[in-house]
Design brief:
Number of helices: 2
Low-confidence stretches: none
Mean pLDDT: 85
Strand content: under 5%
Length: 74
């Protein structure tokens, strides 16, 4: 049972964090740096870069949600 829960959590982490937040972070970093960064995907050696781009996407998402919440709150 523990293995099944671990596999489901790992799949969710891969899908959401590396899929969704990487895309959001990639667009944000490309816009802020005027297209200079992040560079092209270089395989396994750029795994840390992928995590940092996904972390930037997570941060942008959280800041956007907080800003929208404060702006739209009555």
């Amino acid at each position: 049972m523990d293995l099944l829960v671990s596999a489901i959590c790992s799949f969710f982490m891969e899908l959401v964090f590396y899929g969704l937040f990487y895309a959001i972070g990639w667009v944000f970093i490309k816009a802020v740096t005027l297209g200079r960064h992040p560079g092209p995907w270089r395989g396994a050696e750029s795994f840390v870069d992928m995590e940092l781009v996904a972390l930037a996407g997570l941060a942008v998402t959280v800041v956007g949600i907080v800003a929208a919440w404060n702006y739209l709150a009555p």
